[in-house]
Amino acid sequence: MGTRGEVSTTRAEVGTTGPSSRDGEGFSVRRVVRRAAFLATIGAVGELVLRRSLPAAASLTVAAAVAIINFRSLEGLLQRVIQPGRPRFDRRSVLTIVGRLALFAGGLVALLIVPGIDFVAVALGISTLVASLIVEGLRRGAVGGG
């Protein structure tokens, strides 16, 4: 026990069966959301510093937040509906779908009605989640997750 080589445990010895969020293996929704939020923050700061545009920074931030909320909502819906055995497509699932569509429609209406919304910043805000998903997929493939 005096050297570092003697103190090694595997997940089988500890008793965990799936990928752990600590060891960095597998797909992590939390990591995707954190990375998307980080990218949105960097983008909003860039909009403020480089373009000196508060509406553009707000547009980017709100678009990224809507994308992240929709992603989390879809993740919960898929966990509930697409399960081995009997899927649970209940009232909550329908309300989740309707809520996601309402949020999306509200965003589209805001794009058309509210003056000063920067469409490029909105596209960048939505792209933060897409970029985060791509990075997570590439990371998972590099780790050996397929």
Give the SSE map.
Elements: H1 11-14, H2 29-51, H3 54-81, H4 91-113, H5 119-143
Helix pairs in contact: 2-3, 2-5, 3-4, 3-5
- Taking the alpha carbons of the first and last residues, their distance comes to 36 Å
Number of helices: 5
SSE arrangement, N to C? HHHHH
Global shape: flat
**Main β sheet profile:** none
How would you sum up this structure, described in words?
The structure is a single chain. 71% of the residues lie in helices and 0% in strands. The protein is mainly α and 146 residues long. The longest helix is centred in the middle third of the chain and has 28 residues, at 54-81. It starts with 10 loop residues before the first helix and ends with a helix.
Features:
flat; 146 residues; disordered N terminus; single chain; mainly alpha
Brief synopsis:
The protein has 146 residues and is mostly helical. The protein has five helices and no strands.
